[in-house]
Design a protein that fits this description.
With 443 residues, the chain is an alpha/beta fold. 36% of the residues lie in helices and 22% in strands. It has 18 helices and 17 strands. β13, α15 (364-377) and β14 (382-385) form a beta-alpha-beta unit. α2 (71-85) crosses α15 (364-377). The longest helix has 15 residues, at 71-85. The termini are far apart.
Length: 443
């Protein structure tokens, strides 16, 4: 009987990529397939904790651009994270959850006829999932990696490593890259495969610049025209109410703010956010510690004009916040895994907004780079702002498949007030409901 040999590294070669300089690694004595690893950064010690993604090959998505799954987006996210944190992506030759490309094409044909991804496999007398994640453990052992933070929503990948001697120190959730084309696929992964994915309403289209009762009424009435359509959407409309913290000392203005905030509550499709400006405020941390008592009923609070992002992350607790990110600031705290965990667990958003409410359009390439960077770090909820509005959604149209939310303010105003017609046009473009007629609705 031949001796069973341990898996080992076969070849390491340098590989320049659009994510950064990497090493491409092949292996000996795995199985009969050509699995590879792509590694960013230097060699690791046996005690190092490495960010790792186990990713199974998907030719249809990663090469041909199929929209039926989110594999290409997940691979892009994984490579971005690995490049940013000296991590590793293990790329396994397990096409179609292990059934192979030709069988996958057969299954796709059945899916086009109405079956879901699991039902199609079973109709072909194929297993739900043939992948073997112990292969990934062998690859990590060959690389002398014993402890990992695993980027995954799939509990079976965690089990495949831990059953084979690899310690999973933390699970980093994979982003939810949902679209109309892959929604049913993602739901099946949750319901039939046990994947840990939130397929609820976790992305928003923001309408900001609301300052008074007339503004909130105009914005809400325009939003209501889309309410029935939003029932089937995985997005909601977020109405942003502008408040300067110093205004809260004025009792009359405080009453008005509470009236605006409480005007429309309890709707899962249309939510309210307070855009709280901390301009000229001395003790930010004190306000952040007490923010729940200021606005207990709104869905979230966006912190504007802050001095130090460290104060926000260190004092936010479990409150759902929207945190503006400006390139000019020191955002190094966001590189910490603990920051990712705090912000994700609270359901908070990072909003990339170099415009700072001035209506200046962002450079699209720079905006895309930032979205991919923060997604790669593991942030689940990212929004973009800056110059958006009716007929001004080029960047959003390009980036929405990355799962971003969007917010508009300046281009929704006329003479400093919310313009209902502009809000309608903006929402119609964002939500792609072209069969709704504004004139008929307000007739």
């Amino acid at each position: 009987m031949s001796e069973i040999k341990e898996s080992s590294v076969r070849t390491i070669c340098p590989l320049p990529t659009r994510y950064g300089n990497a090493n491409l690694i092949s292996f000996a004595n795995l199985d009969q397939k050509e699995h590879v690893a792509i590694s960013f950064g230097s060699e690791v010690s046996v005690d190092s904790i490495v960010n790792v993604r186990i990713h199974s090959e998907c030719v249809t998505s990663e090469i041909f651009g199929s929209l039926k799954c989110d594999c290409a987006e997940q691979l892009d996210e994984a490579l971005s994270l690995a490049a940013a944190t000296n991590g590793i992506v293990l790329y396994l030759k397990q096409e179609g959850r292990g059934i192979g490309l030709y069988n996958k094409i057969d299954a796709y044909k059945l899916q086009a006829e109405g079956l879901n991804t699991i039902e199609a496999n079973r109709a072909l007398d194929l297993p739900d999932d043939l992948r073997d994640f112990s292969i990934a453990a062998k690859m990590l052992n060959a690389l002398n990696i014993k402890k990992v933070n695993l980027l995954t929503n799939n509990p079976e990948k965690i089990k495949g490593l831990t059953d084979n001697g690899i310690q999973v120190m933390k699970r980093i959730p994979t982003g939810v890259f949902m679209s109309k084309q892959n929604e049913d696929y993602l739901k099946t992964k949750v319901e039939s495969c046990g994947h840990l994915i939130d397929v609820g309403k976790n992305k928003y289209v923001g309408v900001s610049g609301i300052k008074n009762l007339n503004d909130i009424t105009a914005a809400f009435n325009a939003s209501m025209l889309f309410r029935s359509e939003l029932e089937s959407e995985k997005r909601y409309i977020n109405l942003g109410i502008s408040v300067n913290y110093l205004e809260l000392a004025d009792e009359k203005r405080k009453i008005e703010i509470n009236q605006i905030v409480s005007r429309y509550l309890g709707d899962s499709n249309i939510k309210t956010t307070v855009h709280l400006s901390l301009k000229d405020v001395e003790k930010e941390e004190t306000i952040l510690n007490n923010i729940n008592s200021f606005f207990p009923f709104v869905d979230s609070v966006q912190i504007n004009d802050y001095k130090d992002i460290n104060n926000i992350v260190n004092n936010m607790g479990t409150r759902k916040l929207i945190i503006p990110i400006y390139d000019e600031n020191d955002n190094s705290i966001l590189l910490n895994n603990s920051s990712v965990e705090i912000i994700n667990q609270s359901g908070s958003f990072l909003i990339l907004d170099n415009s700072k409410g001035r209506g200046i359009s962002a450079n699209i390439d720079n905006l895309e780079s930032n979205v991919r960077f923060y997604s790669g770090l593991g942030y689940q909820n990212i929004a973009i702002a800056g110059g958006f509005g009716p007929n001004s959604l080029e960047a959003y149209d390009r980036l929405k498949n990355l799962g971003v939310s969007v917010d508009a303010e300046t281009k929704l105003l006329s003479d400093g007030k919310i313009d209902r017609a502009k809000v309608f046009s903006y929402l119609e473009e964002c939500l792609s409901f072209e069969d709704i007629d504004f004139e008929d609705q307000v007739g």
